[in-house]
Amino acid sequence: MGGLNVNEIYESISGEAGMFPQGSWCTFVRLQGCNLLCSWCDTERAQLLVENTKLYDVEDIVKKCNTDRVLITGGEPLIQRNVTELIIALREAGKDVQVETNGTIPLPMMQINRSIGRLCWVIDYKTPSSGMALSSLPWENFTTIIEENVYYKFVIFDNADLRFFAERAELLLEHTKGAMLIISPAGANKSIMKECLQYIEAKVPGVLSKTIFSLQLHKIIDMP
């Protein structure tokens, strides 16, 4: 098996939405290196491939994952060639795996095997406030995804981000089966949440039933 550049491996709560309910205890495998430089990135130390990056074999990473749930994040996991190998090894070990990716790299087609751990993709669809919206794959690229558990996350910072979400939400739900949308307002701010709800209800009726609103729980209670 090959190796991966790792920023850190640790246990904490799953602070955002996805297959793992918020507050679920899981192992985080944070990979090093990203192909984007988002303006509001909260883990800048994982953006670049640096000289002191830890290189772990896939087997070593699996041994360090002592929980039933493993969340692979970054950086951007899919820029590392052996990440698919890691996902397969974790699932074969009976782990449920959630991968957070930035929507700029096509997802690898992976066979659904119901006898091993589940797999979920959370695609962080880059909004204008990130400064990286033009880097996201066209929405059409996501319509061929065959995995059942796919979530599209939109970080909302301002009205431009809300308009961006409204333009894409119906298209994504129309052309993908079983997908869910996540809205993550920037900051634990009650007024932003209320504004998001009102705007979406007015602009894209019916979408709210397929939308999860997610504040960053781990930040609210000051956990990594």
Nutshell version of this structure?
This protein is α/β, with parallel strands linked by helices. It has helices spanning 58-64, 83-92, 159-175, 190-203, 217-220; strands at residues 3-13, 25-31, 54-57, 69-73, 96-101, 119-124, 150-156, 180-185, 211-213. The longest helix has 17 residues, at 159-175.
Outline the secondary-structure elements.
Elements: E1 3-13, E2 25-31, E3 54-57, H1 58-64, E4 69-73, H2 83-92, E5 96-101, E6 119-124, E7 150-156, H3 159-175, E8 180-185, H4 190-203, E9 211-213, H5 217-220
Parallel strand pairs: 2-4, 4-5, 5-6, 6-7, 7-8, 8-9
Antiparallel strand pairs: 1-2, 1-3
Helix pairs in contact: 1-2
Care to describe what's here?
The protein has helices spanning 58-64, 83-92, 159-175, 190-203, 217-220, and strands at 3-13, 25-31, 54-57, 69-73, 96-101, 119-124, 150-156, 180-185, 211-213. Strands 3-1-2-4-5-6-7-8-9 form a 9-stranded mixed beta sheet. The chain is globular, with a radius of gyration of 17 Å. It has a single domain (3-220), classed as TIM Barrel (Alpha-Beta Barrel), CATH 3.20.20. With 224 residues, it is of the alpha/beta class. It starts with a strand and ends with a helix. It contains 5 helices and 9 strands; from the N terminus they run E-E-E-H-E-H-E-E-E-H-E-H-E-H. Helix 1 (58-64) packs across helix 2. The mean pLDDT is 84. The longest helix is centred in the last third of the chain and has 17 residues, at 159-175. Helices cover 23% and strands 25% of the residues.
